[in-house]
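Note on ligand handling. Small-molecule inputs were canonicalized before submission; formal charges were left as drawn, and no protonation-state enumeration was performed. Where a ligand contained multiple stereocentres, the stereochemistry in the source SMILES was retained. For S-adenosylmethionine, this procedure yielded the string shown in the input block below.
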Amino acid sequence: MQEQIKEIYDKTAKEYDHLVTPCRMCQFLTLIYELNLRGNEKILEIGSGPGALSIQLAKLVKNGEVVGVDISESMIELANAKAEAISLRNIEFVCGDALNLNFPDRSFDIVVTSYLLHWIPDIRRFLHEIYRVLRHGGKLGIIAPSPNMYGELRRAYRRIMKKYKRYYEGTVIQEMIGLRVYSEREIQKLLCLTGFEIIKSFTMRFKEPLTPEVYLKRVNAITDEKYLDPIPTKLRSVVREELMNELSEMSKNGLITTECSIFIIGIKRKEKHEKLRLCNKSNPCRTGA
Ligand SMILES: C[S@@+](CC[C@H](N)C(=O)[O-])C[C@H]1O[C@@H](n2cnc3c(N)ncnc32)[C@H](O)[C@@H]1O
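Structure output:
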């Protein structure tokens, strides 16, 4: 699976940066605001992609440093080139896997991650890795897609898929555009079980007008068209056209795309053996997801 994800982003890195990064900037600034930086922190971003969030952070922590980790070499090259182009010295991007972070215990003040959670095959292990590399009292900032994302694609898709139902038997569209999308409540619960105290959590919608062509290009920069995998190759160009027609139909009055994102800030309070005591009645650990 890691190989497949790496393949997608090695292929789409530049397109991703052109089409997706600009629409994420206000989300990055929202997360940064919530982190309440002092200016001297050592920060790790996991799944840093083209590096925009890390670069913003490095500009703000003038007496600190930022490390971005990503599994895709193309993303790392792109991010390093962008940091070099503006002569940013307190930042580096390195290749690595979120599930096996190559850093000592308690080596960061802050860990951030944006739009990575849905690609992680073992989320508990991932959160334990974050917990391990954070110092006590360190902050974790997450931006994650909410289960409502790609609403327009799913609507257009549902309409045309009636015709192609037999190819999709046993598949879930959500799984073709990311492994598993968690709700805000589920993420809170998982964080709490790992030993984090949640200090802020909210979901925000970001609306943006786009042409259907740019919309689909953007979706493909994220998914590498995995949602067409079950369709036989010779039928794919027809399906592409039908999808575009549906999106054009929807966009008669302008296509407004909505990115729905979850923001969570957690603090590493206690070591793991004490985590259960953190989960009191008012805590999401106790309630259903
Ligand atoms: C949707 S992009 C998000 C990029 C950026 N954080 C943003 O918000 O625009 C997901 C990124 O996570 C990286 N990624 C996926 N699985 C990973 C893993 N196991 N370890 C490290 N990076 C991973 C991908 O290569 C890709 O660059």
